[in-house]
Amino acid sequence: MVKSMTGFGVGSAEGKDWRVEVSIRSLNHRFLSTRIRSFNDHPQLLSRIEARLKEAFSRGEISIWIGVNHVGAGGNDNPLDRVVAQSIYRELLDIQLLLKIEESPTLEDLSRAGGLQPLHAEDEELWQVLERALTAAIEEAVAGRGREGSELGSELDAIIAKIRVSLDRVKDRLPEVLAEIKNRLSEKVDALQLKLDPSRIESEIVLLSDRFDVQEEIVRLETHLIRASQVLGNDSPIGKELDFLSQEMLREVNTLGSKARDTSTSSIVVDMKLAIEQFKEQLQNVE
Questions:
Q1: Is the confidence at residue 73, as pLDDT, over 60?
Q2: C-alpha torsion angle, residues 100, 103, 106, 110 (rounded to 10)
Q3: Measured between alpha carbons, how far is residue 277 from residues 45, 142, 243, 247, 284 in Å?
Q4: Bridge partners, 61 (sequence order)
Q5: What single DSSP character describes residue 69?
Q6: How far apart are CA 72 and CA 74, in angstroms?
Q7: Per-residue pLDDT reduced to its tens digit, 27-55
């Protein structure tokens, strides 16, 4: 099943003390890139969020926005982890002495170094709510990528079928091309009034035929088309393999066009090149 890299999902959840809203937007990207926005107050949970995103997505630029509201009646009595703050502050003092800096570390320096962090126990309570909202947003985004991927798969199938039709036209044209080569050589011999051994003429025809023989390119191109159709049915991410196959298809078509040197075949080759470019363009959004 083809999956798109474009999708959007939202999720929300509420617990005893927290209400969390999560929104996810995914765009096409060569690799997996995650950006977590507006969640700097809980750095301990970032690694968990990133792990969940990596489980759900293999490619794409994933941007996630998280809104957290404390709804508990008691509020936060001890919102910051003082042990962590003291430890990091001591590290900053050691660096001050090592570098012989006159000014002592400030509260702003401590914050930038990650010293003003919420209590771990509070984060655990928040994670129970955040995880539900995050899961809902991921599921919706994945479903959207699947729906768009289904449309992409149909378009890619249609392009493959179009290339196959053009390739069949080239195969049908080959006998005519060889016959024209033979006729042109015979006409030149007659025009020059040369008396050549018929076997010599046949040898020359064979040599010319070998120069214009594109059977090997046709076989390889057919193999790539078959493989591309098979890959489209896989459940795993397929974008990278299809991109590689499209490059190989274009290489064979270019070779075919350079060897054929036939007006009709050249026109068909142009059609195949355009189709492969369309194929590559659609692949930009395939996971």
A1: no
A2: -10
A3: 43, 27, 11, 10, 11
A4: 27, 33
A5: E
A6: 6
A7: 999 899 999 987 777 777 888 999 999 99
